[in-house]
Amino acid sequence: MKIMKKSMLVSLVILLAFTMLLAGCGGSETKPAANKDAAPPDIQAIKDRGVLKAGVKIDVPKFGYKDPQTGKIEGFEIDLAKALAKKILGDENKIELTATTAKTRGPLLDNGDVDVVLATFTITEERKNSYNFSDPYFTDGVGLMVKKSSGIKEFKDLNGKKIGVAQSATSRKALQEEADKQGIKVTFLEFGTYPEIKAALDSGRVDCFSVDGAILFGYLDDSTVILPDRFSPQQYGAASKKSNTALAKLINDTFNDMKKSGEIDKLLAKWGLK
Fold first, then answer.
1. Residues 72/97, Cβ–Cβ less than 8 Å
2. Does residue 60 lie within any of the structural domains?
3. Which candidate, 22, 63, 101, 138, has a CA 20 to 30 Å from the CA of 6?
């Protein structure tokens, strides 16, 4: 009798253990398997959305310019955005372009309205504290455009004159440092867009239109001249949100691959920037 009870007890223990084992197996079947191919969260978010959001200029010929006739935005930096879209989504046309200015570039990134800014964004140590920047893809210098009739031939001739610059741009700081170095006095008027500065130059509200040289060439006409002076080298980079480290690495790796393959040089030549 005791042997029978002992046998039944052993059987119950075995049955209970077997039941628990089955339950455990059932639980593992319902647990979703980890996706080894899943991208980092910041890149996966773009993949899930199906479109790369890029902040670009629409008033800078050759870099990012919206053709008033066609409404199409084209330029060197637009082609860079397309290259990133192709890398992430496999299709260069899966991009959503948002017009940005020197003043709105940062807020667009901060608010998550865009994934990347490709908008003649000069890399500075101060800006690197707030955003991730790629290695430079273009280097320029602050230039000066004046009316041919003004008689202004070089920077020192701007003593006592007004210079038009873009809001939040680095041009003002560079020119003020140069003015202090040369011992001349200049004043600045800030504008929201480059066409506004050009209009101010044409109307005589300012004596000089100053921004990076390559941008100035897009506004050159028969009545104006760009002086040979260049100040404070300006290196453009692609900016992304500080927390999006995987995206920043992908952007940088993509551009460096394009440099090595010669694709960047081809795009610069295509837009007359080389």
1. no
2. yes
3. 22
Residue 10 placed within a domain: no
**Cα-based distances in Å from 74 to 70, 78, 170, 267:** 11, 6, 24, 12
Q: Are residues 103 and 164 in the same domain?
A: no
- Res 7 pLDDT > 70: no
The stretch 55-68 carries a mean pLDDT of 95
Same domain, 131 and 167: no
Place of tokens 């920077």: 155
Q: Which is it for the CA torsion 215, 217, 220, 225, positive or negative?
A: positive
Q: Which long-range contacts (CB under 8 A, 24 or more apart) does 262-270 make?
A: 263/83, 264/137, 267/76, 267/79, 267/80, 268/76, 268/138, 270/76, 270/79
Amino acid letter for position 139:
T
Q: Give the separation between CA 74 and CA 243, rounded to whole angstroms.
A: 29
Q: What domain range is 208 assigned to?
A: 141-234
Q: What is the CATH number of the domain that holds 145?
A: 3.40.190.10
Give the count of domains, the chain.
2
Is 46:250 a contact under the CB 8 Å cutoff?
no
Q: Give the confidence band of 253 by pLDDT, cuts at 50, 70, 90.
A: very high
pTM: 0.80
- Taking alpha carbons only, the member of 111, 133, 137, 115 closest to residue 123 is 133
Q: What is the pLDDT of residue 37?
A: 64
How far, in Å, CA of 255 to CA of 257, rounded?
5
**Residue 1 forms part of a structural domain:** no
What pLDDT digit, counting tens, does each position of 70-110 carry? Answer: 999 999 999 999 999 999 999 999 999 999 998 999 999 99
Look at residue 12 in the predicted model and tell me its pLDDT: 41
Residues 252 and 116 occupy one common structural domain: yes
pLDDT, position 230? 92
